[in-house]
Amino acid sequence: QVQLVESGGGLVQAGGSLRLSCAASTRTSISIYTMGWFRQAPGKEREFVGEISRSGSNMNYADSVKGRFTISRDNAKKTVYLQMNSLKPEDTAVYYCAASYTWPAVGPEGYNYWGQGTQVTVSS
Which residues contact 66 (CB under 8 A, 6 or more apart)? Predict the structure, then answer.
């Protein structure tokens, strides 16, 4: 089992950057998990943002964030990151970190553990 805690959200102007972190608490290594990021805007369904493989050598991204967002992980620190650049108002959402036993996991149904989320607000 793993507990996930996101941090790093906040208010940023359009065109700015933020880096989210997801700290994992688990007695095992997080290298057994695919790690993903999702987001949910008010009134909308939870949306896949991207995911990173167990070793960190492979990533998948949603088309809406390709070229702007980068996922990375530090298994020794049990932490996953989401670097968000060139932010747009439509990126405003609660961002969630998730862990999966499978690769690729992609959709929310493929993930086994979730954090509580961190709010990202992008002003125009």
Answer: none
